[in-house]
Sequence to fold (395 residues):
Amino acid sequence: MTQENVLEALKNVTYPGFTKDIVTFGFVKDIIINGSNIALTIDITSSADEVKAQLNDESTAELKKLGFEQVSINVTAPAAPKQMSNSVSGKNIAPHVKNFVMVSSGKGGVGKSTTAVNLAVAMAMQGKKVGLLDADMYGPNVPRMMGVADQKPEIEGNKVHPLKAYGVEIMSMGSLMEPGQSLIWRGSMIMKAIEQFLRDILWSELDVLVIDMPPGTGDAQLSLAQSVPVTAGVTVTTPQEVSLDDSRRSLDMFQKLHIPTAGVIENMSGFICPSCDTESDIFGMGTTAPVALEYDTELIARIPIEPAIRIGGDTGMPITYNQPDSETAKRYQAAATSLLAFIDKVNAEGGADNAAVQPTTPPGVSACSTGAGAASTPAPAKSEDESCGTGCGCH
Ligand SMILES: Nc1ncnc2c1ncn2[C@@H]1O[C@H](COP(=O)(O)OP(=O)(O)O)[C@@H](O)[C@H]1O
Ligand SMILES: [Mg+2]
Fold:
């Protein structure tokens, strides 16, 4: 039995979440054959135990089929991230979720949901346990984009099981309502819904919950930041100046809510023509990096306008999963890798902390940390559902 026979057999073992096998990825190393005994190393990039176990089992089965009796496989992986809840202080109403990522944008239609979907799928393909919460109650597009639009979640008591697709747990107001229904809700109702999505959905022990926020900066954003420590904020923008103005507001909001900013994704950045594969400039290109710098953060991906991205969204087959070899899928994967590295960095430095945006004041008084003296100057008493006038939904 030769090394070539062994490599040929291990080509039947695909890496979980990918179409490629572990030999093509170059993960198989140090093969030592001694009669009917074999030892080898599989050197992977994911630290998930399920990935290790699956590769060990499948590779052992392939090698036994070749006739080896003693199979010793050493799966090496980077050290697992520190097992900790990130709440240093302050509230975390979903403590079984390790990290929360807020995907926001200054305005609608810039590709926020598309980005949230593809980042979530990319992180799951990289071996993380990922959830995707569609918190855009007025425009819940995630179920269609993830291909679960016709599924209804299972209810258990007063809790709801998330749906699942592409290795990602999913929940959306769209999955709880009849198709085409609209929500006409006040800010306080949105805030309540965000809390319930975190508290009453039976999310697994997740490494990351990606949250697709409504556009803009408002009640939902504040409510999320007050309910859980948000580890990372990602802003999605298109390259036109008018869109960048709104993105500045979104980046400013992260700072005010004490959310560490992972970076900006420039979407619809250039057009890759499907028939000639050349890239042309439609909305402009490369305008975002200087804005990111203004807020001490960076551009983590430039995603072109590509018909395949829109088709992936409309048909519920995200491009990152369905065309993993495309340039766009690679860019989403690279953005997911930088996001995960950023999350590790935030945690290594002590984790996210939402104590600074916690309400410390009696009802009717501003709880926002944004305005100087807001907490010490009692606002006139307001009835429920009425704005306190600071623009940040503080009831
Ligand atoms: N890079 C892109 N190339 C082509 N179509 C895109 C791209 N990004 C988003 N789209 C499409 O644009 C529309 C709006 O995107 P969406 O993610 O729903 O935006 P938002 O959540 O910000 O409102 C969707 O139909 C989506 O498929
Ligand atoms: Mg959306």
Remarks:
- The chain has three domains: 3-76, 97-355, 359-395.
